[in-house]
Please model this.
Amino acid sequence: MDSNVISFSLTADEQAKITAAANEIFNIIKTKLPDLPADKRRLYGSVNEQNKLLVNKARDITTVNPAQIPPEVNWVEFESDYKARAFYEGILTIINNITSRLESAKMMHDYDNYNDALVLYRYLDYLRRSDVPGAEASYNALREFFPRAKKSNNNDTKK
Model:
């Protein structure tokens, strides 16, 4: 009985192309973009949706009313940051979609492998009980992953 929940996979060629593309992307960004440690991530945090609206409105004002913008801010850098942030958000959307699909497929393959391993374990138990040579050793190799609860010496009775 075939109980696979996922029966399709990427071909070896597709896997090689995906790996090459992922490595190419990583090689581009690894020297140009930071990988912030946890303390820096807390420091810079994440701009929430309300604050993104503030940034968007500020950008609108600088475009519509350039005479009203303060000279203390480097608005060329502001625009560069804004465009970079929009680009990263778009790429993250794509990557998050890819991540979700990869995680889902991996989860389904893990589920299939686990259930097939359980079938093997039960079959080895059958062979072991039928005194098939070598079955005991194979069964015991898998049995260690199924610890049995220790029996308690509980002499409590109903009151």
About this structure: The CA atoms of residues 51 and 90 lie 18 Å apart. Residues 13-143 form one domain.
